[in-house]
Design brief:
The chain is 29% helix and 26% strand. The chain has 9 helices and 19 strands. The chain folds into 3 domains: 172 residues, FAD/NAD(P)-binding domain (3-Layer(bba) Sandwich), CATH 3.50.50; 54 residues, no CATH class; 88 residues, D-Amino Acid Oxidase, subunit A, domain 2 (D-Amino Acid Oxidase, Chain A, domain 2), CATH 3.30.9.10. The protein is globular and about 65 Å long.
């Protein structure tokens, strides 16, 4: 996709979340001129709101085999990706390797989880049922009565807010320019090629390539026919963080159950999430949302009732029509999609970032992202 010229390729990235910042970093490392525009604060959207779980094994669902393969590929990249970021910036991103426990409190929970376990094992995922005694040995503060758990040792976690801060530093050090609170209104096209973007104030910014990485806001940009706008919608999620003693945390693994996940941070935060609501860009915190999370978490770990509340917030996952990402070239030359990651944005960051940057610079479309092209949503006539 890079122009046949000795001058550096000029790339505009719409969206400065984890995807946009990471792609900018990789492009800048290879000499591209990169400019990012974000309607808000860089990294302030879903990348900030997420819980940072690198979970594909525990979340694998029937019909998502291609997504599971992509997630496993990205899981394998995370240790090197985290180490590279930490080495470059000197700032930890807190990649934690304790793994995930999917807890069954009742016999009904056990039946449901074990039925799902058979599907997971059919995909050769590294998951296993462990007894109630072993579950409690690993997490002593779990409820007195439980049936056991599925252990998923390769579903790790990372502090997503630290990752985003490190990626911003990395992107800027590679030469990228970041414009915050600077909304893009339109993708500018000419003769079925993207030639740049128009900002809300009317300024046009030319580009050889435009990367659309605006998350839940990706569909709202003008300039493309309706059929070529990525079918991405906001899926509201409410989260709450409690404060543990970091020297004696109540929870050490990521702990999941039917209606909640609990993600412990090294600094003592315990993140509880997340609701899933089709309410557009509504940012309201609700009593019902908080109650549902707290009650489900309390059933797992009763001792949380003594913990102080640290923070409550709302995020908007970029959910696509099939809840899988939209990656790669558009039918419009010079436009590349990197959006629609739904609940897997943090997990899929390394594989997305590397594959999109390589496509932009070398024209090589990684086989890992081929199943996730925009063409699966476009009627054949509209793509012509």
């Amino acid at each position: 996709m890079a122009p046949k010229s000795s001058s550096p390729i000029n790339v505009v990235i719409v969206g400065a979340g984890i995807m946009g910042l990471g792609i900018a970093w990789r492009l800048g490392q290879r000499g591209a001129r990169v400019t990012l525009f974000d309607a808000g604060r860089a990294g302030g959207g879903a990348s900030h709101a997420a819980a940072g779980m690198l979970a594909i094994c525990a979340e694998a669902e029937p019909g998502e085999q291609a997504l599971v393969a992509l997630g496993r590929a990205s899981q394998a990249l995370w240790p090197r990706f985290a180490a590279e970021l930490e080495g470059l910036t000197g700032a930890p991103v807190d990649l934690r390797r304790e793994g995930t426990l999917v807890v069954a409190l009742t016999a009904d929970d056990q039946a449901r989880i074990c039925h799902h376990l058979e599907f997971q094992k059919g995909l050769d995922l590294p998951v296993a049922w462990i007894s109630a005694a072993e579950t409690r040995r690993r997490e002593p503060h779990l409820a007195a009565r439980l049936a056991g758990a599925v252990a998923s040792p390769e579903d790790l976690q990372v502090d997503n807010r630290k990752v985003v801060a490190a990626l911003r530093t990395a992107a800027e050090r590679s030469g990228a320019t970041i414009h915050e609170h600077c909304p893009v209104e339109r993708i500018v096209t000419s003769d079925r090629s993207a030639t740049g973007v128009r900002l809300r104030d009317g300024t046009e910014v030319p580009a050889d390539v435009v990367v659309l990485a605006a998350g839940a806001w990706s569909r709202g940009l003008e300039g493309l026919p309706a059929a070529l706008r990525p079918p991405v919608r906001p899926v509201k999620g409410q989260l709450i963080s409690l404060r543990m003693d970091p020297q004696a945390p109540l929870v050490r693994h990521v702990v999941r159950a039917a209606n909640v996940y609990m993600v412990p941070r090294l600094d003592g935060r315990l993140i509880l999430g997340a609701t899933s609501e089709e309410k557009g860009f509504d940012r309201t915190l609700t009593a019902g949302g908080m109650l549902a999370l707290l009650e489900a978490a309390w059933r797992l770990v009763p001792a949380i009732e003594e913990l102080p509340i640290d923070e409550m917030w709302v995020g908007h996952r970029p959910g696509s029509r099939d809840d899988a990402p939209i990656l790669g070239p558009a039918p419009v030359d010079g436009l590349v999609y990197a959006t629609g990651h739904s609940r897997n944005g943090i997990l899929l960051a390394p594989v997305t970032i590397d594959a999109i940057a390589r496509f932009v610079l070398d024209g090589e479309l990684d086989s890992a992202i081929r199943p996730f092209g925009m063409e699966r949503f476009i009627p054949a006539r509209a793509a012509e």
